[in-house]
Amino acid sequence: MIRFMLDGRAVEARPGESIWQVAKRLGTEIPHLCYTPQPGYRADGNCRACMVEIAGERVLAPSCKRMPTEGMQVSSESARAKRARELVFELLLADQPPREMAHDAESKFWRWAEKLDIAASRFPARDHAPPPDRSHVAMAVNLDACIQCNLCVRACREVQGNDVIGMAFRGHHSEIVFDLKDPMGSSTCVACGECVQACPTGALLPSVLVDEHNKGVAKATEQVDSLCPFCGVG
User: How many CB atoms lie within 10 A of CB 20?
Assistant: First the structure.
């Protein structure tokens, strides 16, 4: 066990636990978008929504990737850490469709924005957004809501092993693509749905949950544990 301080409390970390995992186990909520605790997903630390302050270190650290060390003093509630996280959400909010027109107004992103009391952004929106893709019979793709957290890439490539989803282009023009930027319905996607479950913003959704204008119109009413019928191992 590794003993360290978290928000003024003496805590213990189990082998392999990140600061975020320790905080979650002890009931401390730290925002997160590009990380999910589901089996098979590794932390990437690229959204910077889970930053914490560590005594003696100049820069903030992503709690999903940072492993505690003996005697470390971590603050998830310092003014600096909280303001950094709020700024991340405000920056991301600038490019999101308004919540009343969102593809999924109850997505992880919007729930965290509400908890942090971030309802508007002072920053200008981007001057372009990828067009919607409704070519797939089961899934709607609306990359105007994408924050490029890469959860869908990890879901497809590392969890399911299909390697259909990737990133293309560079800088301001980078975006999620299917195969060689094919429409999702024409790609090698097997419709397993893992990317839809991983997406924190509603950029990937079941097609029945949005209308012809890609506005969210319905919510899932039932959750059923089942096996995927599309592959030989379920």
Answer: 24
